[in-house]
């Protein structure tokens, strides 16, 4: 071994130190983890905004006044083909786990322990699904056990995880009803309920004013606003701003899951915006719904302004999304067909806006498809947790899309599965490329649509294009088997509804 004189060694050391001092920018520094705000809303349709997600501006775009959604679209990326489940709880569990509803089998909404909201049906019976929702604890009947939920993984990697608003992850009396058991460090307003007793602070956000209602559904952490003339959306926003301020003060990266109950029932007018919609000629329900949407938009603007005020805007990702389409009581989301709980685009296609400073190009649009379980790996990759993101079972990260790289969404099949006898007959749906097949479980009938030519799903093609119908039915069967999806039972025979590729009309 060659020995160098001590003087040469010291000179070399001094050169390295001085070079590093002068050229410090060339020494890699650990990049600070970005903050993530997931602004998640309920029952808001693809067209329930002044942001046009269709190729042209529609009547609903002109009706609603959502300048802050427009601002987010200008500053980030708009997704024209983003999807959720057709009903709330399945969407929420999929985003928490990265798992499709067919696989986690929480296929309908949850509330009371061991009680299904499904109705009796004369032809079929719902399967024995996970009606108690998501659980961080194993061996609880009728729950989907998943220990590594999104907020927990972020919390374990230095994030302050903040839950504000609607949870609706698990039934009353199960661990999953409390967001604190699922990895959140703070919970304001979240429990087993899918909707509040009231949106009004003067009613304590409770249904007790009606002389009825389950007190177990009263929202926690909002007692300071009881009796005040304040709308729930505003109260939740204020709590979210406080939590963000504290995280910034503590120098902690944060994940804010701000999940507004609006526009879920009970629909109560937001007095700040209601009258102007009445003056425009809308009826009471339409004006109430529009006022709730504008309240959501005001909340979004408050969040964006607060991030700027705190000086963290440039390192904060903001994602806006809805959990399903609008209910049938409000205006149809034309040109889309259908509504919440239906298999048509109006039930499952939702608005999605993403702002990621220095990553997404402002004012851009993508037509690539993403689905709700993609949130899980995407947020983990955004946080720099790529190894965890790669463990996602069904969800695929759309970070490449945000960086301007087109995905393989044309080749990737998307699956929806609703084997429940609630509100609508049970069904399964598969989309691949522009083709979409709906399989109705009760009568084993198919509907085939080409969404590129027919976004309104008005021209049914299964009879005229039997080759594509058979191809899509075989693909749907493959996915249902891979996910071990539950099928309803036929009452007359006690047998399961056949898989799509077993239907005689295909052969």
Automatic annotation (TrEMBL):
InterPro entries: Alkaline_phosphatase_core_sf (IPR017850), Sulfatase (IPR050738), Sulfatase_CS (IPR024607), Sulfatase_N (IPR000917). Its EC number is 3.1.6.1. Its cofactor is Ca(2+). GO terms for molecular function: arylsulfatase activity; metal ion binding. Keywords: Calcium, Hydrolase, Metal-binding, Signal. It holds the Pfam family Sulfatase. CDD domains: ARS_like (cd16144). Residues 34-384 form the Sulfatase N-terminal domain. Signal peptide: none annotated. SUPFAM superfamilies: Alkaline phosphatase-like. Belongs to the sulfatase family. This is Arylsulfatase. It comes from Cyclobacterium qasimii M12-11B.
